[in-house]
Amino acid sequence: MYFAVSCIKNVAHKHFLCYGRTMGNTDIERMIMLDYRLTTAEIFYRFPDHPSLLQCYVWQDLDATPDFPELKKFLGFWERSLDGKVHSIKICSCVDIRGSGYSTRTIL
User: Fold this and answer.
1) What's the pLDDT score for residue 27?
2) Beta-bridge mates of residue 107
3) Coil, helix or strand at residue 84
4) How far apart are CA 35 and CA 56, in angstroms?
5) pTM
6) Are 72 and 39 in contact (CB under 8 A)?
7) Residue 89's beta-bridge partner residues?
8) By the 8 A CB rule, do 62 and 38 touch?
9) More confident residue, 75 or 19
10) DSSP E strand stretches across 1-108
11) Is residue 68 exposed (0-12), middle (13-18) or buried (19+ Cβ within 10 Å)?
12) Which of 19, 39, 47, 107 lies deepest, with the highest CB count within 10 Å?
């Protein structure tokens, strides 16, 4: 199994269901070659009604390092559609999808 945390393997159909997306083995191999990794972002944001309080939202998806295009798309959606202003983001990205190594960064 490639993604123990984020995907469910359907052995009968040889597909993975990842956050509503069905991915075959060739899709996963292509993502690995493009340096996509399991990425988790801890997003701290301010309550719109109480700006002195912080709330945490955890986002997880496959994303390419170091540019994180999927996370940037999500943050663009956040800025356009949600009221809570982002305070800070902590990113944890798996070095190898099949391995157990992790690296972390804090941005903003």
Assistant:
1) 73
2) 89
3) coil
4) 27
5) 0.64
6) no
7) 43, 107
8) yes
9) 75
10) 7-10, 15-18, 21-24, 36-46, 54-64, 86-94, 102-107
11) buried
12) 39
